[in-house]
Design brief:
37% strand, alpha+beta, five-stranded antiparallel β-sheet, 323 residues
Length: 323
């Protein structure tokens, strides 16, 4: 029995050694295969890590270029710019056509906007929550006079608002007469240099290119064709008209076809005749060329004086210097 047991144990030992040897050989192959598979993957990771600094440097260059372009777009100066908000209760006066005056100084931008009324008491460049904290510097209003298209004027509140960036929304909080702060988003866009806008209608030769505005004329006297409209058609103003330019202010000498006009109103200002005999002659300011300018003529030809509305259009492309 003892001998049989010894033989059995010996067989088990031999089988175990053979099994372990086979497993050991297989593990070596697997390890070698794993090393072969891991090596390319490691090389790929190394390549990706090596390429990252190039992508980072490229991103930094793009950011730097964008910053340089943004700075180059708006040099120091004054611009007309659109001012939009997220609320119909918070907007610029309709007299301002949705725009404010953007000032750029030392790279810092501020826009002045005239609002629709005097009901907004303060603004804050940030959130309503921050506006209520101790030490918050609120924007104080100015009193602005605006003129509507019908000639009526009004006094409204205006504000100088810091502009962190163009064409991007930023936070502006407001407080009104009810004493409650509100959050809003605003955006400033499409800046146009004011000096360029004012001279856009004038060519290098000094004659207007057909747009409204005052031509850049040297001091002196000129003739200009004028279109007259209004009234019954019985009276009119002779054309061409003599205009005088002095320090870029233009005055027209207009002669009626009647001696019965005792005064004229231009932009609310009263003008009397400059002559005492013959047809009525007035010297009136010219506010614009190439667009109708409304004037009032008071005639005494009827049983009692009557104010009659007329329009005068001065055509800049007909301007000729007087010898």
């Amino acid at each position: 029995m003892s001998k049989i047991k010894t033989i059995f144990l010996t067989g088990v030992l031999v089988f175990s050694m053979a099994f372990m040897s086979a497993c050991a050989g297989k593990t070596g192959d697997q390890q070698e295969a794993a090393v072969e598979e891991t090596a390319p993957a490691a090389e790929e990771v190394t390549e990706e890590v090596t390429e990252e600094p190039e992508e980072s440097e490229a991103a930094e260059e793009v950011q730097e270029d964008t910053a340089e372009i943004t700075q180059a777009i708006l040099p120091d100066g004054t611009y007309d710019a659109e001012f939009s908000t997220d609320s119909s209760m918070f907007h610029v006066s309709e007299a301002c056509d949705g725009k404010g005056v953007l000032t750029v100084e030392n790279g810092q931008m501020t826009i002045h906007v005239s609002l629709a009324s005097r009901k907004i008491l303060n603004l804050y460049p940030g959130s309503a929550e921050d506006a209520q904290k101790d030490g918050a510097q609120l924007l104080e209003p100015t009193v602005d006079e605006v003129t509507y298209s019908d000639g009526l004027t009004d006094e409204v509140y205006g504000f100088d608002i810091p502009v962190p960036a163009l064409d991007e929304e930023f936070d502006v909080a407001l407080i009104g007469t009810k004493g409650k702060w509100y959050d809003h988003k605003v955006c400033v866009s499409n800046p146009v240099d004011i000096s360029e806008a004012e001279t856009a209608g004038t060519s290098a030769s000094g004659e207007a290119s057909g747009k409204s505005g005052i031509p850049d004329l040297a001091d002196g006297s000129y003739l200009v064709e004028m279109t007259f409209e209004g009234g019954s058609g019985r009276a009119g103003i002779a054309s061409p008209v003599t205009i005088t330019v002095e320090n870029q202010k233009v005055t027209a000498s207009v002669e009626w076809s009647s001696p019965n006009y005792d005064y004229m109103l231009v932009d609310g200002e009263k003008f009397l005749p400059v002559n005492t005999e013959g047809n009525s002659v007035f010297e009136i300011p010219v506010a614009a060329f190439n667009e109708p300018v409304t004037v009032i003529g008071d005639t005494v030809a009827m049983s009692k004086p009557h104010e009659i509305e007329y329009t005068l259009t001065f055509h800049s492309d007909t301007i000729k210097a007087l010898d």
